[in-house]
């Protein structure tokens, strides 16, 4: 019986989050990604998370009269998440971690095209809020900064299991 209780407590500590991640870009390219997070609550106010993301909408830019598409190829990170419940329905949180990413850009003009890519790693952080629609499901809004990749607003849903 004790083992069953321990398994139940551990199961409530795990969660998954799926979000639509928007990016602020200096070139106003406006790419977007879908990101997934798997987390483990160490205690009620601290969790460890792993994040994976992939671009789902290419950004477009023509700043120099040359049409350019910008794509997020990969986003991966590990985070510590601190949270504070205001009441049964609302929670505020902050993240601090490390992110690795790869982006590519393709410019086309006059029948010619060129593609470049860049990858990097950086410190990443964010703040957000959750609204719990049930004890195990919440709607989340956060702002993440991914270092040189910049960052932006994300909207998603979290499930505890």
Structure report:
The two termini are 20 Å apart. The protein is elongated, with a radius of gyration of 18 Å. The chain has one domain (2-160): Beta Barrel (Porin), CATH 2.40.160.20. Residues 1-9 have low confidence and may be disordered. It contains one helix and nine strands. The protein is mainly beta.
Name a few traits of the molecule.
Porin, elongated, mainly beta, 1 helix, 9 strands
Rg (C-alpha, Å) = 18 Å
Report, as a whole number of angstroms, the end-to-end distance: 20 Å
Number of helices in the DSSP assignment: 1
Overall spatial form: elongated
User: What structural class should be given to the helix and strand makeup?
Assistant: mainly beta
Topology, number of strands: 9
Order of helices and strands: HEEEEEEEEE
Count the domains: 1
Could you say what the CATH topology is called?
A: Porin
Structure, briefly:
The chain has 161 residues and is mainly beta. It contains one helix and nine strands. The protein is elongated and about 60 Å long.
How would you summarize the topology of this molecule?
Elements: H1 2-13, E1 14-22, E2 32-43, E3 46-57, E4 59-61, E5 68-85, E6 90-109, E7 112-134, E8 137-145, E9 151-160
Antiparallel strand pairs: 1-2, 1-9, 2-3, 3-5, 4-5, 5-6, 6-7, 7-8, 8-9
């Amino acid at each position: 019986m004790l083992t069953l209780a321990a398994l139940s407590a551990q199961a409530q500590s795990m969660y998954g989050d799926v979000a639509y991640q928007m990016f602020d870009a200096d070139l106003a390219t406006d790419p977007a990604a879908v990101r997934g997070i798997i987390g483990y609550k160490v205690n009620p106010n601290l969790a460890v998370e792993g994040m994976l993301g992939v671009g789902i909408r290419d950004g477009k830019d023509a700043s120099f009269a040359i049409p350019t598409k910008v794509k997020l190829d990969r986003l991966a990170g590990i985070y510590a998440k601190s949270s504070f419940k205001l009441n049964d329905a609302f929670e505020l949180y902050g993240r601090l971690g490390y992110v690795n990413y790869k982006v590519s850009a393709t410019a086309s003009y006059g029948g010619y095209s060129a593609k470049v890519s860049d990858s990097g790693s950086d410190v990443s952080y964010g703040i957000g809020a959750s609204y719990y629609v049930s004890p195990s499901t919440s709607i989340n809004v956060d702002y993440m900064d991914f270092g040189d990749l910049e960052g932006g607003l994300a909207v998603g849903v979290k499930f505890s299991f």
